[in-house]
UniProtKB/TrEMBL annotation:
It holds the Pfam family DUF58. SUPFAM superfamilies: vWA-like. Residues 51-237 form the DUF58 domain. InterPro entries: DUF58, vWFA_dom_sf. Gene3D superfamilies: von Willebrand factor, type A domain. This is DUF58 domain-containing protein. It comes from the Bacteria.
Length: 309
């Protein structure tokens, strides 16, 4: 099957070579969407205390231990080491409503690409990776492990669910599957984890925003809403079309009253970003108009994609 419709496991495995030029760490270029005051919520790995020793030129003066210095009569500083890894939990939406695309690829294919890129980038950084891959029939859970085998298991489930959507009946986007996955994420993560939510923006409601806010209280949350250009802005009128959710059919006429597609899209993005606790969740909107890797590089302040030979 065309990977723009449903990428298989081999296609997702090849994306390990594209998982470069971007990072989810807290130190970002100034034009990255994770830089600045709002993105300071992304803390990166924690620091573990190692020892107290004599101050040396070049040490961070903020780490001077004044009590130890007073006791010894010599300036003492605390030494910290950066934690080698942190748990990363991916929440990946592969419901039937994701099997839609009007330009380059389906939303489910782009979501699979984003999940694969996050996995390979996290593995390269030494993080432990887990996932909640969900569809209309429930959630498949993967506990966090740091190994290539763990990544391949996650991507195997992503590929399986993405391929199954081609034969599934169409369904409208709804919040129930996403909310169930987020409730499970709340149970799994306690603190200092990275939670990346890759989901259909049409499925996000106030309950999802509140869940994201509760998770973000003690963890780093990055929302990656997947959308299609037709969901962000309809073509200019006049035109008419027909749409179906598999059960009902309706006529689409943008000249009629009540059509506010751009406004509704912007409002959903803002609701996700603010969350239930106003913690300013970083949002990385990814579209179906091109591959996921260059979009992540642009938003995370990196250079152009590496040249292929």
């Amino acid at each position: 099957m065309d990977p723009r419709i449903a990428p298989d496991l081999s296609a997702l495995a090849r994306l390990q070579h594209e998982a470069r030029g971007f990072s989810f760490l807290n130190r970002q270029p100034v034009h990255s969407l994770l830089s600045g005051r709002r993105a300071s919520r992304v803390r990166g790995r924690g620091l573990a205390f190692e020892e107290i020793r004599s101050y040396r030129p070049g040490d961070d003066i903020r780490h001077i231990d004044w009590r130890a210095s007073a006791r010894t009569g010599d300036t003492q500083t605390r030494v910290f080491t950066e934690e080698r890894d942190r748990p990363t939990l991916l929440v990946v939406d592969l419901t039937a409503a994701m099997f839609f695309g009007s330009v380059h690829a389906t939303k489910s294919a782009i979501a699979a690409e984003v999940a694969a890129l996050c996995c390979w980038r996290g593995l390269r950084a030494g993080d432990r990776l887990g996932a909640l891959v969900f569809g209309d029939d429930g959630v498949t859970e993967f506990r966090a492990h740091r190994s290539r085998a763990a990544v391949m298991r996650i991507l195997g489930e992503v590929a399986r669910r993405a391929e199954a959507l081609a034969a599934a009946p169409p369904r409208p986007a709804g919040p129930s599957a996403l909310n169930a996955a987020l409730r499970r994420a709340e149970e799994l993560v306690t603190h200092d984890a990275m939670v990346v939510v890759i989901a259909d923006i049409q499925a996000a409601d106030e309950a999802a925003a509140r869940s994201l806010g509760r998770i973000a209280r003690h963890n780093d949350v990055i929302a990656v809403p997947i959308s299609d250009p037709l969901e962000r802005a309809l073509p200019e009128a006049p035109w008419r079309g027909r749409a179906t959710d598999g059960a009902q059919t309706a006529t689409i006429d943008p000249r009629g009253a009540g059509w506010q597609v751009p406004e509704a899209y912007a409002q959903r993005l803002e609701a996700i970003r603010k969350g239930g606790l106003r913690l300013e969740t970083p949002v990385l909107p990814v579209g179906t108009e091109e591959e996921a890797a260059p979009q992540l590089r642009r938003m995370l302040g990196a250079a152009a994609a590496p040249k292929r030979r």
